[in-house]
Write a structure and sequence with these properties.
The complex is a heterodimer.
Chain A (H helix, E strand, L loop, with lengths): L1 E4 L3 E5 L4 E9 L5 E6 L6 E6 L3 E5 L2 E6 L4 E6 L8 E7 L4 E2 L3 E6 L1
Parallel strand pairs in A: 2-11
Antiparallel strand pairs in A: 1-3, 3-8, 4-5, 4-9, 6-7, 7-8, 9-10, 9-11
Chain B lengths: L4 E3 L2 E4 L5 E6 L6 E8 L3 E9 L2 E4 L8 E7 L2 E6 L8 E10 L5 E6 L3 E5 L1
Parallel strand pairs in B: 2-11
Antiparallel strand pairs in B: 1-3, 3-8, 4-5, 4-9, 5-6, 7-8, 9-10, 9-11
Classes of the chains: A mainly beta, B mainly beta.
């Protein structure tokens, strides 16, 4: 099985950079995914890391260190529309973390 | 614009009634997932199918829940009898297993908001 831990809430201001961490414990590892979910909406895929290192997609980047069982999602040039919950997911996205609620303030 | 569809979007029912939720995965995807989301428990995997075969339903209460894929274009999740504690948003997601035998990206449907009175 797998468990993933994330902070419950993060607050940042428009234009800033924010990092959302995810630590995991697993008996088997198949990569770390990140999903975004706006209130009342469905989760949408953001990124996936199968190997160590940084994956960049526009303003969003995701990092993985398998030796540290740790990953993070980096959001740059924050916009108000980035206010949402962010989930890390492991084990082929069969297990989700509890989610981090990001509040972007003007 | 391919997307996962789910019906109904909202369902209000009384305790003891049967509830059936339907999902149409994206054409060509070979994996289907059912999740339940509540404030208290977050996103929980209920069932996972690959090529219509159930691979993992360990998260599903077997006494009242059942999940099936009658064909490649339809997945169903049934609750019989329903209970107030089943009130949640139920999401279906589909994906495509790569060469490594795993789905790296899942596409979620809009969800079914179930309320059991």
């Amino acid at each position: 099985g797998q468990s993933l831990e994330q902070p419950s809430e993060v607050t940042a201001v428009e234009g800033a950079i924010v990092q959302i961490n995810c630590t995991y414990q697993t008996s088997g590892f198949y990569g770390l995914s990140w999903y975004q979910q706006h209130d009342g909406g469905a989760p949408t895929f953001l990124s996936y890391n199968a190997l160590d290192g940084l994956e960049e997609t526009g303003r969003f980047s995701s990092f993985l260190s398998r030796s540290d069982s740790y990953g993070y999602l980096l959001l740059q040039e924050l916009q108000m529309k980035d206010s949402a919950s962010y989930f890390c997911a492991g084990e082929r996205a069969l297990t989700f973390g509890s989610g981090t609620r990001l509040q972007v303030q003007p | 614009d391919a997307r996962v569809t789910q019906t109904p979007r909202d369902k209000v029912t009384e305790m003891g009634q049967e509830v059936t939720m339907r999902c149409q995965p994206i054409l060509g995807h070979n994996t289907v997932f059912w999740y339940r989301q509540t404030m208290m428990q977050g996103l929980e995997l209920l069932a996972y199918f690959r090529n219509r075969a159930p691979l993992d339903d360990s998260g599903m209460p077997k006494d009242r829940f059942s999940a099936e894929m009658p064909d490649a274009t339809l997945a169903t999740l049934k609750i019989q009898p329903s209970e107030p504690r089943d009130s949640a948003v139920y999401f279906c997601a589909s994906g495509l297993d790569g060469l490594a035998g795993r789905t790296d990206t899942q596409y979620f449907g809009p969800g079914t908001r179930l309320t059991v009175l």
